[in-house]
Amino acid sequence: MKDVYGGLRLDYNGTPFNVGMDKDYGIIRFKTNAAEKLDIPYGSSMEGIGARPPAKGFDNSPDPFTGHGFTKDINGNIIPEYTMPYLEPKEGAELFRVNSITGDEELIAKLINGRFIKIK
Description:
The structure is a single chain. The protein is mainly beta and about 120 residues long. It has two domains: about 1-30 and about 90-120, no CATH class; about 35-85, no CATH class. The protein is built from one helix and four strands. It has one helix at about 1-10; strands at about 25-30, 95-100, 105-110, 115-120.
């Protein structure tokens, strides 16, 4: 779990996430026909090297945002960072519950007819 929190930098001030206290978290896995809408959240410091401005303009969020397209992983890993507007997921998208201690994943719902339906 520490890898997830560290990689996504969920340790910022005011975060609702708690390492060691959250018993699980969710993951949605989906496919989309709109991958071109994925954006790299560049900060204005990247403008000087010719980075293409993101759709919503350069982002100047506070730390731990890096502005160069990778998370500021506290574990030393290099993890690409993307943003996206709402994208319509394809039928069959899956919602998983992940155990924070073991990392075990449990499929709990699938997108059917535009709604997540609980798996029994």
